[in-house]
## 1
Amino acid sequence: MKKIKEILAQTEFSKADLVCLLQAEREERQLLFEAAQARKVATVGKKVFFRGLVEFSNICAKDCLYCGIRKSNEKVLRYEATDDEILGACRFAWENRFGSVVLQSGELSSPAFVKRVDRLLQAIKKMSNKELGITLSCGEQTKETYQRWFESGAHRYLLRIESSTPDLYHKIHPQNDLHAYEKRQDCLKLLKECGYQVGTGVMIGLPFQTDEDLAEDLLFLKKLDVDMVGMGPYIEHEDTPLYAYRSQLKTKQERFDLALKMVASLRLLMPDINIAAATALQAIDPVGREKALKIGANVIMPNLTPCDFRKEYQLYEDKPCLDEDAALCRNCLEARIELAGSEIGYGEWGDSKHFYRRQEVTK
Ligand code: 5AD
Ligand code: FES
């Protein structure tokens, strides 16, 4: 087998190389982290960008087997934030020079939902003199819907593939048309065609998932040529079907370590993309997100969801920041980011450099 040092000196990586990086321990793991950190600073610099996260509704038509707000979980109180609440959170982001917000919700596709999101996009743009960047994370939609939302002001879209291995995707979703792997793939293509900066990602440490699957995930991200990635550890949730497999899971610490190695390996594989430090990291380690920023991530999403709703947006157990208010979160984050040796890109959209390079190539 190749030595880690040899692999780290390369610019192209095979599946076997990536498996080797994901399995690095002790000094070798340290070498991987140092290489990723250096590549990050050399390519996207030391700046970290804020995206204020507004989880504006937990009403979901889907039943993903891992997710705490799945349709069949009757323990969740369903909510929909009002326009005023959503605009208030966005105003906070704008006034505090966050640069951008992410509007996230459960997945619905009714005409009323599509229209509401459209209206919100226009209202946020108007409120902020078009200064606030908007990322959407509202699941699978038709091309018309994606197009309409793009025209109304969303310019980035997050839609995680969750696992790029079809077999594993099927194991963690119900077997029906509403949860088809091909549909998810198609949506990612549609988003690109509409002109969005496209982000996707996977969960790490899922039951039945192997290191080879994760290496495939990394190659999938590269092949899809995505602009942004958000990926974090899978964390079990008591009220979901996947909870039955919890005895097969790696320890949380192992899943956390693997997630960091995924972030570092991805930074080497796709040096100029935006990589988010996933909130799920912080559910395992109180400074988990800062650790990810240090070794490759460059985006963080402080939670701006109105506090009353947060406990009803528990995708997984121990989700952090349940009762922190937005201002507190910001102070806390600032201190932490400085600790991680980075600086904050205040008032900037912090677009993916990769996206602009991609545009130049196709011009
Ligand atoms: N553990 C970790 N991440 C989860 N997500 C949903 N449920 C879980 C879980 N149990 C992630 C999915 C989804 C994103 C919004 O949250 O990857 O795309
Ligand atoms: Fe939310 Fe610190 S990040 S309180």
## 2
Amino acid sequence: MKLWGGRFTKPTNQLVDEYTASISFDKKLATYDIEGSLAHVAMLKACKIIPAADADKIAEGLQIVLKKIEAGEAELSEEHEDIHMNVEKLLIEEVGAVGGKLHTGRSRNDQVALDMRLYLRDAIGTVIQQLIDVEKALISQAKANLDTVMPGYTHLQRAQPVLFAHHMMAYVFMFQRDMERLTDSLKRVNKSPLGAGALAGTTFPIDRQFVADKLGFDGICENSLDAVSDRDFVVEFLSNASLIAMHLSRLCEELVQWSSAEFNFIELDDSFTTGSSMMPQKKNPDVAELVRGKTGRVYGHLMGMLTTLKGLPLAYNKDMQEDKEGMFDTFETLKGALALFAPMIETMQVKQENMYQAVTNDFSNATDLADYLVGKGMPFRESHAVVGQVVLACINNGKYLLDLTLDEFQSYSALIEGDIFDVLKPETVVNARDVAGGTARKSVEVQIEQALAVMEELTLHE
Ligand code: ARG
């Protein structure tokens, strides 16, 4: 007999049971569901809605059910549809009919919203921790490469030299924004919907704040209709996760490029790469590729959830059961990627020599020649044109700027003097950009300080 079987004259068609059941995936909520029920029953007792002895019996029973589920000893069945009714069934098996008092003043609609919030609160905490680890790995590479000059790109064409440390720090600031967004989202996740009942509240003299306090929530959802139909916090998580996945994917793309023979800027550690079953020489950046590839499913879950919610009338609709798999998969996908990322970055070998070679054999110091002429009083547009001619002549003669003699430089502009050879060196070019946020060593050191300060701040507030 189903928990809601009273008004039915026939058993449910088995296909309906199979189709509507969520137990195969929402069993992941078991511990949160029981945690919520323990708080609820403590409140029922405190408010004298059920006798204290019954409440104690229920609480004891719930602890046993929890242990059994954790040990894999409890039988969870499709017939009982979801985790909420399975737990209730198991509880009744354990303590008898008194277990049926647990659901007083509560609906699965506020219960499931509660479970989702409890799950997500933990998941967000885990992701924040993992992002800190990734940032630490990036910062350690940045610190080790404060003198490593590499080509900086626009349009994937060599543009101006930058420090490898500067490049690493760019990702640190992306992940910091991700952490900020996640931390901010907790304000909206961490509110208790319990007490909203099915949609309208309940006739029992419950104490919503009691439950919220017990579960460590910052407050209660203000409107019962909103409390049971709101999944904005899930969308927000999926959206924040999509940005994280996108940031990871961009870095992965660079790792894949940099570890190719064409770039040869880094070598990923053997323990974070894989081989080919056919080509014995291969060492593939599979992890980076797979993290890049899994971005698709994370974006997909965001679009899926937004689409599921679009057009749903208030309040709860069964459509909303579709909120779970995408959320679980998103968290697990991110967790897997982030766990690998920190050590993969940490152990990556940076080929400083090759990067330096790349900035020497190119024209990424051309802007500095133009800026030099501006410093001597030439309008920038004019100096841009002069340097364009110098570069063209160099290309035609198979030379780079630093291969020219002073005479050759002066044939383009009499303003050029002997100091030009130092001005055009990659190190000088980099360190000339000591504007705030720039690529000069000093500026990058400031960025590292700033990032560490923000990280500390976020860690303290957890
Ligand atoms: N399994 C359901 C879900 O995940 C729980 C809430 C069901 N409520 C209901 N009235 N059918 O959404």
